[in-house]
Design a protein that fits this description.
about 220 residues; alpha/beta; 8-stranded parallel β-barrel; about 35% helix
Amino acid sequence: MEKEQVKPKVDYSLYLVTDRDLMSTGTLEEAVEQAVSGGATLVQLREKTASSLDFYNTAVSLKKITDRFHVPLIINDRVDIALAADAAGVHVGQSDLPADITRRLIGGGKILGVSASSLKEAIAAQRAGADYLGVGAMYATGTKTDAQLVTTDELKRIRNAVSPPIVVIGGINQNTIPRFHGTGIDGISVVSALISAKDIASAARELKELFMKNVRCENA
């Protein structure tokens, strides 16, 4: 009888999404190590232009770091890379492989994250087996110029309608984090506010503290 796969318990509070073009360090490995040492609880490797080989090699390299800190590594979009590198899971957007197909490919033991910018998309993602939802873009951001913005009211409607953890993304920084008080979210997903910082570890500590103090406290 096949042994049932058990997903790791995940802390979604500070979720780093990588971007090579924005990092302040010489290598992605340095950026990720600083982020997780500072308190990042989840890392998503996003490589929009890398070759498959480079993407795979980077995933293997980063997984050694995230494993050392007991932080899950999620791969953006590429199911094949996630499986090849034995990452903790995959995150897919609305124009990527459908969530239900992704779930079938990765199995029940890996984490499936799905982007959602509306209540309809969030409900569909939950039905497809999403473990968490990445809701946004909450604010305009240079990393996703074509992203549909989500209002706070829509975010609250999503929170009331679905059970998976919700991580907000898009323009999340020191100034915008306190605005999520009372929304019931489980985490913040950051790109430039963390990876572009001169001191990434220090920025991670600050962002996490802001989230825990202003937002997570309401869920305790």
